[in-house]
Amino acid sequence: MSDPFVALILKTLQDQPQGFSEYELIKIFESHGLFADQNNLSDSDLALFQKHFLTMNALYRLQQTLWQEEQVLLSISPLSISIEKCDENTFNSNTEMFPAEISAAALRNYYLDTREFESTQAEEVQTMLRQFWARFYCIDKRLEALKRLEIDIDNPTPSIIKQQYKKQATRHHPDKGGSPEAFIAIREAYECLITLQGEAVQTGQT
C-alpha cells in the first residue's frame, strides 16, 4: 500500500479490533518514523499540532474509503478508533453519505482540507494545543481516574461521574478529616473524566 499512514491504521485495526486511542496511534506512527519532518521542526507546539492533523487526516480518508467502497464504518473519536457494526437500517443507498448520527461533517471536512495543515502557523496553535494536551493527559490518566472515583464501568455517563465524585469528595473533604492531597486527587480524577466525556460528545461518540 502506497500510503504508510493508512497501511498502519489497517494493521492496528487488525491487531487491536477492540479499538485504540488517537494517542496510541500517534505513538505507532512515531515508532515507524512517519513524523521525521515534524520532529525536525524548531517549534514543538507546531510539531505536535501537525502530528495530530496528519493522524486525523489519515483516519478520515480511510473512513471515507471504507464507507464508500465497502459500507464499513470506521468510528473515530479521541478515545476509541474501531470498526463499528452496522445494522441494515444504518445503510444508505447513497454511499457518498455517512449515517447522519455519526457524520461529524464539519470536523471531518476540516481534517480533510490539507490547506488547513499548510496554513496553520505556530502562533495559531496555542489554544488548540492546550486542549490537545489536556486530552492526552486525561487519556493517560483515565483508568486511574476511574479507580479513584470507584467507577467500575469503562464508559460512565456524566451523571455517574458526578455522583461518584460527590460521594468521594464528601468522604475525603478536609473539613471532615480527609487530607487535602486526597481531595485534590479526587477533583483531578473528576475533571479528567468529564473532559473525556466532553470530547466524546463533540465527536458523536456517546
Automatic annotation (TrEMBL):
Protein name: DnaJ domain-containing protein
Pfam families reported for this sequence: DnaJ, DNAJ_related
First and last residue of the signal peptide: none
Coiled coil regions, renumbered to chain: none
Positions of the J domain: 144-198
Keyword Lyase: no
Keywords per UniProt: Chaperone
Organism encoding this protein: Neptunomonas concharum
